[in-house]
TrEMBL record:
SMART domains, sorted: FES
Name of the protein this chain belongs to: Endonuclease III
Family to which this protein belongs: Belongs to the Nth/MutY family.
GO molecular function, one term: 4 iron, 4 sulfur cluster binding
Native source species: Saccharobesus litoralis
Cofactors: [4Fe-4S] cluster
Sorted UniProt keywords: 4Fe-4S, DNA damage, DNA repair, Glycosidase, Hydrolase, Iron, Iron-sulfur, Metal-binding
Listed GO biological process terms: base-excision repair, AP site formation
Length: 60
């Protein structure tokens, strides 16, 4: 998605609807903690799997 924090933020601000911008940071943290975990991602239960740029690195 991006090489640095500023680039990631810029891209997210372009695609996240205004009404969700207040909460999106917290939601992404929770998503990383419980669904997109490093050792064994739970791709089968991921609601944003279609947006994933790392499918080739994970097993579904």
């Amino acid at each position: 998605m991006g090489k640095n924090v500023d680039l990631v933020e810029e891209k997210l601000l372009k695609v996240v609807p205004a009404e969700f911008k207040v909460d999106v940071h917290h939601w992404l943290i929770l998503h990383g903690r419980y669904t997109c975990v490093a050792r064994k991602p739970r791709c089968g239960s991921c609601i944003i799997e279609d947006l994933c740029e790392f499918k080739e690195k994970t097993e579904i």
